[in-house]
Amino acid sequence: MGFLETLRARLVGDTESTHPSASASTSTANSLVPLPADSYQKVVGESHYQPALAATAKICRPGEDERPMFTAYLLAEPENPYDADAIAVHSDEGKLGYLSREDAQSFRATFAELRARGNGGATCGAFLTGGDRNPPNYGVVLRLSRPKDCEQHLGRI
Prior knowledge:
By secondary structure, the protein is an alpha+beta fold. It has a single domain, classed as Alpha-Beta Plaits, CATH 3.30.70. It is 32% helix and 27% strand. The chain has 6 helices and 8 strands, in the order ααββαββββααββα. It has helices at 3-12, 22-31, 50-57, 101-106, 108-116, 147-153, and strands at 32-34, 41-42, 61-62, 68-76, 87-91, 94-98, 121-130, 138-143. Strands 1, 2, 3, 4, 5, 6, 7 and 8 form an 8-stranded mixed β-sheet that branches. Helix 1 crosses helix 2 (22-31).
């Protein structure tokens, strides 16, 4: 089961394995809310997800200043055994890392509002960094506004 199918199953409570389909992508996209992109947000833990990052490098498109860019999916992980406020960062190729513990706590109200509205998470643009070593070592920077701006965008403030 690919990332989008796993996400779809998680969002709609479907536990069956499915093949990629337009309906799965549409269902997932409707459950995720785009957040504003007025700032930058670092991602941590990328060293644990290098295979997914290398796969993501293949799907990037030129972004600002021709830097490799992709759509990131931000998903709260309340069941995470290390941090109940954890927010994972994914691409179409899988999990890439997390917001730092401090940043995840600052986005707590944003993700609580998303859950209250029945949304499974959020999306934002992201830059792929690095990749020029042997072997390549990738990182991620999100194009994501500060938490207060995201809450205002959602109409919470």
